[in-house]
Amino acid sequence: MFDLAVSDAEPAAARERHGDIRGVLVPHFTGRKMQRLADRVAAMVDEQIDVVLAAGPQADLHNDFSLPLSFRILCDLVGVPDPDGFLALLLSAGEVDAEHTAAAALDELYAYLRELARRKRSTPGDDLASTLCEVIRDDADVSGLLALASFSFLVTPSNLSAGLALLAGHPGQRDRVRADPRLLDTAVEEVLRVGRVAETCVPRYAAEDIAVADVVIRAGDLVLCDHYSTGFDDLVFTDPECFDVGRRPNPHPAFSYGMSHCIGAPLARVELRAAYAALLKRMPDLRLTVPFTEIPMLGTELGDQVGGSIARLPMTW
Fold this sequence. Notes:
With about 325 residues, the protein is mainly alpha-helical. The protein has one domain (about 10-195, about 265-315): CATH 1.10.630.10. Helices cover about 50% and strands about 10% of the residues. It has helices at about 10-25, 30-35, 40-55, 60-80, 85-95, 100-120, 130-135, 140-150, 155-170, 170-180, 185-195, 265-280; strands spanning about 60, 95, 200-205, 210, 215, 220-225, 285-290, 305, 315. It starts with 10 loop residues before the first helix and ends with a strand. Its cofactor is heme. Keywords: Heme, Iron, Metal-binding, Monooxygenase, Oxidoreductase. GO terms for molecular function: heme binding; iron ion binding; monooxygenase activity; oxidoreductase activity, acting on paired donors, with incorporation or reduction of molecular oxygen.
């Protein structure tokens, strides 16, 4: 069995389990494999834009575009036949609410994924669930890895929406990308650097003494690491508060680093690039209908959720 909940108080065991999990998942998220998905992703992007345009000329592009698109892509990758039902299960299991029974929601999600694994063993397809079933015998282990990959993807819709808000809120930068599509790659990296949508201070415990400048963090000390803050370090970034779609170099840590580097980073980049390219082409005058600082966020109107998120993104074109 893969133990997906090893405590940070057991650093050696946590590193071993973490390595085991990455060893199984990483081969399915390589940049080369994700680029082969690019045409499928582009087609899904255009289909979702068609839906938005048909209902326009105003829309909530988070719930009408970013969320459904991201979860269609996730479900296509995983091999889930019911994107809407799986999205509801995943969002329910990720909620943080005093009246919500998280354990029951998680049980329902894992039961769904175990049944998915059982079906993939008898009728495999070209998807992550089928591939994991080939190398892992226990359906519970497969469901745990699929849940881990899926929860990690919860942040992607907010990154996508944050980028739309940034481009719409900086029309000069938006027009630079429209005029020169070669800037799409650097624009995606800049969105990842500055597109913070929630607090990111995840608690960690130091496994050994660490010296940072003139401060020594002792083994066992609690550390709250905000990895987004390093994207605004003026020792690394010139004018870090400026949103610059052509910024080079851009060594942001949005996908973390080393053994914690986000496995799904290549897929996230493919999705963001395809979405921005298509939207800027088909909705060239995309703009917010509320001030940038008044974009509704989860926790203010819809309840809290693991990972935090934009609640709505009212836009027109």
